[in-house]
Amino acid sequence: MKKTLLAALANNISMPDLSIMQDEHLTIGRVRTELLSGLTVALALVPEAVAFAFVAGVHPLVGLYAAFLVGLVTAVIGGRPGMISGATGALAVVMVALVAEHGVEYLFATVVLMGILQVIAG
């Protein structure tokens, strides 16, 4: 029986291994370090998300919501060391033409389609 493309992709996605925390001897100092580093990255992402929203021609809250959702999805699915999850300047510039021609309504569908294509491409 042939597997569907979606089933094959689902087998390649690995969920984060939460048991790894037990191996790393999670201490109060380690938790504090992780929380402070997460807070630092989140605060650094705020001006970037607002700036990219302005470049794309959408309301700044759209950029903040998108940055939050990208972080949440990356945390749930599991990121990799060295992987950057967030908006890029090149993507914001491309979105300007889309938003100007079709409006904000097509922005979400376009981003979802880009994500699907990235998953397929590996």
TrEMBL record:
Residues spanning the membrane: 35-56, 62-79, 91-121
Which Pfam family, just one, is annotated for this protein? Sulfate_transp
Q: Tell me the PANTHER family matching this sequence.
A: SULFATE TRANSPORTER YBAR-RELATED (PTHR43310:SF1)
Q: Which organism is it from?
A: Roseovarius nubinhibens
Where is the SLC26A/SulP transporter domain positioned along the sequence?
33-122
Q: Where would you find this protein in the cell?
A: Membrane
Question: Which InterPro entries does the record match to this protein?
Answer: Membrane-Transporter-like, SLC26A/SulP_dom
Entry keywords, A to Z: Membrane, Transmembrane, Transmembrane helix
Q: What is one term from the GO cellular component aspect held by the record?
A: membrane
Superkingdom, natural source = Bacteria
Q: How does it sit in the membrane?
A: Multi-pass membrane protein
- Protein name, entry field: Sodium-independent anion transporter
